[in-house]
């Protein structure tokens, strides 16, 4: 598949109009239409729902858009790396990580690295471990910072000697806020937001034991920040159980 056609497709998806997209690409509208019709024929599926005034993407078009963006991003990264001069180290390092205490150590490492290689740009991508792991496999993330448990098969890795503690986030005026520590019995009758990662939920299941099925899980969240906002605004009453 020609990357040029993927760029054509992404431009049409963005403009939602063949004529406007053709103007952006400096080609004629009939040429653009023929090119993308050929792409649809090559893939064996329709990518657009053509309306009288605008177009929308089919389900196959939405999937192709997601993958095309990844391919274009990977191509740009590869070209940047190939342009690096031998006498000067520059470029971009993409780091994927979640929200946990070891980010403090990551900040110290990045500071030292930038002092040694000031022309290198560091791009930080915050996401769940599963998303970062997938992006590493696709070549979109160079380094991943994970909170265990995580599958390390096929990875070169080192362990950072930091540890996080499980915490329960809640509004300051909640009755549990005055307690020195929280027991599992304190949470059995509370509406909870749990981490979305199945590996982390397994950690909770081990801690709660047979009482895990008694939990009132209102919903799950992949990162803690927005879950905390929901709890603070009493979206699910006042409790937000999450990793910190």
Element layout with pairings:
Layout: H1 3-15, H2 18-25, H3 29-43, E1 48-50, E2 55-57, H4 59-82, E3 91-97, H5 103-116, E4 120-126, H6 129-137, E5 143-145, E6 166-170, H7 184-187, E7 191-195, H8 198-208, E8 216-221, H9 224-232, E9 239-243
Parallel strand pairs: 3-4, 3-5, 7-8
Antiparallel strand pairs: 1-2, 6-9
Helix pairs in contact: 1-2, 1-4, 2-3
General description of the model:
This protein has 244 residues and is α/β, with parallel strands linked by helices. The chain is built from nine helices and nine strands. It has a three-stranded parallel β-sheet with strand order 4-3-5, sandwiched between helices. It is extended and about 70 Å long. Mean pLDDT is 82; it is low at 236-244.
């Amino acid at each position: 598949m020609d990357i040029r056609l993927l760029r054509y497709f992404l431009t049409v998806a963005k403009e939602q109009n063949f004529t406007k997209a053709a103007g952006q690409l400096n080609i004629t509208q009939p040429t653009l239409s023929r090119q993308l019709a050929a792409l649809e024929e090559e893939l064996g599926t329709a990518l657009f729902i053509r309306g009288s005034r605008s177009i929308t993407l089919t389900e196959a078009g939405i999937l192709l858009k997601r993958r095309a963006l990844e391919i274009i991003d990977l191509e740009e990264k590869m070209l940047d790396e190939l342009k690096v001069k031998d006498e000067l180290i520059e470029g971009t390092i993409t780091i994927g990580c979640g929200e946990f205490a070891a980010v403090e150590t990551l900040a110290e490492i990045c500071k030292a690295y930038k002092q040694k290689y000031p022309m290198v740009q560091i791009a930080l991508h915050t996401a769940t471990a599963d998303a970062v792991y997938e992006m590493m496999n696709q070549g979109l993330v160079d380094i991943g910072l994970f909170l265990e448990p995580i599958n390390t098969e096929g990875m070169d890795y080192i362990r950072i000697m930091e540890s996080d503690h499980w915490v329960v986030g809640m509004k300051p005026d909640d009755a549990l806020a005055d307690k020195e520590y929280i027991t599992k019995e304190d949470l059995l009758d509370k509406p909870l937001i749990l981490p979305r990662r199945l590996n982390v939920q397994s950690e909770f299941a081990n801690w709660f034991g047979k009482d895990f099925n008694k939990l009132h899980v209102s919903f799950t969240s992949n990162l803690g920040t927005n879950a905390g906002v929901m709890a603070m605004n009493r979206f699910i009453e006042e409790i937000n159980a999450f990793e910190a």
